[in-house]
Structures are given as C-alpha cells and as structure tokens.
Amino acid sequence: MASKHITEFFLEKKAKATSSNVDWSAKRDQWIQAVENLYDTVANDYLGSDDIAGIVTVDRTRTKSVQEQSIGSYSIHEMILAVGDEEVLFSPKGVNVLGAKGRVDVRGDRGEATLVRQLDDQWSLVLSRTPKLQLVPLSDESFLAMLRSVMR
Amino acid sequence: MIDAEKGRTPDSFSTGLVSDQSRYLAKTREELIEFFDEQREELDEATMLNLLAATEAALRVDYLVRVIRKKRDKISKVVGKLHKKHEKKVPLSGILNCWKQDAMPATNAVIGRFSGALHLRHWLAHGRCWRPKLGQKYDPRDVFEICDALLKATASS
C-alpha cells in the first residue's frame, strides 16, 4: 500500500496538471491561423507590390508535421520564398514555446532568423539573444533586414 | 545552479512566469533541456580540468619544496635525483614515478587512477580536438575522489 507521502505527492502532481485548464485544440487552431495570417502579411503587404510580383515566388503548399506536448501531432503550412536560385523557408517550430505564443524559424542559404508571436499576437524578429535579448516588431523594414541576414 | 534552472525554467510553460526579456524566449521545452544539458556538460568538463590542473600544481609545488628544503626522506632523495636530471622542467610522469618507486600497493593504485585521468586532462587542455580513449567515463565527483586520494596519499610521506 502506498504511503501517505507518496499519495500526497501524486495528488499534488495531478492537481497541478489539471489546474491549467488549457483548451489545447483551440490553442493549436489559433496558432495555425496565426501562421497563415503571418504568411498573408508577408505575401500581400511586404511582397505584394507589382514591381516584385514577377520576381519572387511564394509557395505555401508545403506542410510539415509538428509534435508538441499536450497538443500531439498536427500539420501546418510552411512557406517558401524563391528568387533566382535562392530560397527562404519559413518553418513553424511550435506554439508551446517559452514566453511567447509561437515561433517560426526562417532559413536561407546564409543563415537563420527567428520570428516570435508575442503575447499580444504581434510578430517580432529576434535580432539577438545575448548579451541582451533584442526584438523588433515585424515590418517591411525589419522583414527586409531579416532577408538580408539570411540570404546570400 | 544549472540543474535548478533546468528544473525551474520548463515549469514556466505552465505557470507563464517568464519575462519577455528572457534569453530563453521562444525556446521549446526540448531545446531548453538540451541547452541546460550542454551547459552542465561544459561546466563538468571545466571543473574536471581545474581539479586535475590544481592537483598537478600541488604535486609540482611539493616537488620544488622537497628540492629546496633538501629533505632526507626516501621520496625526497628520489626527487633530488630527478631534479638533477630535469631541474624545473620535470614531466609530471617523472614526479609520479618518484612516488611509485617506494610506495605501498595502495598508493600505486591511486597513482594509477590519477595517471589514467591524465588522458582526460590532456584531451580537455588541448581543446577536445580528438576522440579520447579514456577507458572509463568520468564525472567531477570521480575526478575529485581521484585527486583527493592522490593528494592524501602523497601528503602522508
């Protein structure tokens, strides 16, 4: 028979797990939608002008499978920007990240960048993590700076 | 401290208690665990190198003290001969051999363990640029016990 202490230990664990009461399905769906909204912003606001339309190709058909604790496995779109012989991949990492509501990794031939969905649902670019965390809101200017840092 | 941080930080996923200025911002649970494991491994290796280097320093200081004071015990006589041959540029293996020559089997075993750990010291001190054949896996506790045993054994003579 389990001792009183062991029973208390597991009851505490159980209470801690149920107290958060998160609707994980809703959280997953909001995350998937937020990523689609990000892609819309990039495709329409930053790359939507007629001058660019024939130069940059935006492919949003590819999906990736993501496995996250409490949520399980789900599919989410990636986005590929192609210009000339270069590609930049926007790949969602997950919604369960520390201190934010999701993260999208951006990979080009020269490097990687990180986009963070902040608690107010705004997207920001991580400029640096050390010695001090530096974030800038995603805008056409910061988007361009990001592309310059990850592309050849 | 790293272990405490490793235990505390993933809790922030459920509590939400994290600064948006945190260097861990937007890391996944798996990335955080990997990050702390790497930090722990780095700290362990730095600690082991320090322990082995400090023990080597203690042995070298003891060597010089015996030379300067011209002690007449058995070890000091062997040390004196070694000093005539090498002076200050004596290899650590030479100092350890002084202790082996007239030591008890138990001391020899301690010296043998320390000599084995010197492969770890060389690998760490040279920037870990090859795949080491250490014969055993070391952690800081092992290395502390090895160094402590050697210093106690050599301090008694």
Explain the overall architecture:
The complex is a heterodimer of chains A (152) and B (157). With 152 residues, chain A is α+β, with helices and mostly antiparallel strands. Chain A has helices at residues 4-19, 24-46, 50-53, 140-150; strands at residues 57-59, 63-68, 72-77, 79-83, 86-94, 103-107, 112-117, 123-128, 134-137. Helix content of chain A is 36%, strand content 33%. The model of chain B has no long low-confidence stretch (mean pLDDT 87). Chain B starts with a helix and ends with a helix. The longest helix of chain B is centred in the N-terminal third of the chain and has 41 residues, at 29-69. Classes of the chains: A alpha+beta (152), B mainly alpha (157). The interface between A and B is medium-sized, with 22 and 17 residues.
**Unreliable residue stretches of chain B:** none
Identify the overall geometry of chain A: elongated
Number of β-strand runs of chain B: 0
Largest sheet of chain A: 7 strands, antiparallel
Low-pLDDT residue intervals, each spanning 5 or more residues of chain A: none
Strand content of chain B: under 5%
Shape of chain B: elongated
Total helical elements of chain A: 4
**Secondary-structure-derived class of chain A:** alpha+beta
Largest interface: A-B, 22 and 17 residues
Brief account:
The complex is a heterodimer of chains A (152) and B (157). Chain A is an alpha+beta fold.
Question: What keyword list fits this structure?
Answer:
heterodimer, A: 152 residues, alpha+beta, 7-stranded antiparallel sheet, two-stranded antiparallel ribbon, 4 helices, 9 strands, B: 157 residues, mainly alpha, 7 helices, elongated
